[in-house]
Amino acid sequence: MTEDLAELDALLADLARRLTAPERRKLGQDLADQLRRSNADRIGRNVTPTGEAMVARKKRLRENVTPGERIKSGRMFLRARSPRFLRKQASASEAVVRFAGSAARIMRVHQFGEIDAVDRKPGAPRVQYPARELLGYSEADRQMILDVVLRHLGT
After folding, report:
1. Is residue 131 part of a domain?
2. What span, in angstroms and rounded, lies between the C-alpha atoms of 36 and 83?
3. Which residue has the higher pLDDT, 126 or 10?
């Protein structure tokens, strides 16, 4: 995937030289907006950028649940994909989509499959989370990037 991105990066760098700094900033804003939407949609469907289903959350046994406690099931990361947490940023030289605020640490743990406490309580058990790729490029994203760049060059 990195070689595809290097090829895309070289092509975009060549095309971007034709644009002025304000035009590149506008292009970056459009790219960041489209990438944020694409990643948010994928996260909402619990699908990785490669198109595979994310590792499902671990099932909890009913007998291990305290009365009144809600058992999480189904879709993961519903709030994380909102613009409040999934932010876009652009300048004349780059377009970035990233997690911000309290969600950034939690999403990093899931993105890379790190070890973390299951909640904020002191003494909470620490577990190894499975890697769930949240942010990334799909083949459709690559095509969308080229389309946005070509549209900007045409106007």
Report:
1. yes
2. 8
3. 126
Tell me, what's the pLDDT at 93? 85
pTM, full prediction? 0.79
Provide the residue range defining the domain that includes 139. Answer: 19-54+75-154
Number of domains in the chain: 1
CB 22 within 8 A of CB 92: yes
Judge contact between 85 and 99, C-beta under 8 A: yes
Question: What span, in angstroms and rounded, lies between the C-alpha atoms of 42 and 101?
Answer: 20
The answer to the question of residue 84 being in a domain is yes
CA distances from 115 to 38, 57, 145 (A): 28, 15, 34
Residue 88 included in any domain: yes
pLDDT in tens, 99-114: 998 899 999 999 999 9
- 4 is a domain residue: no
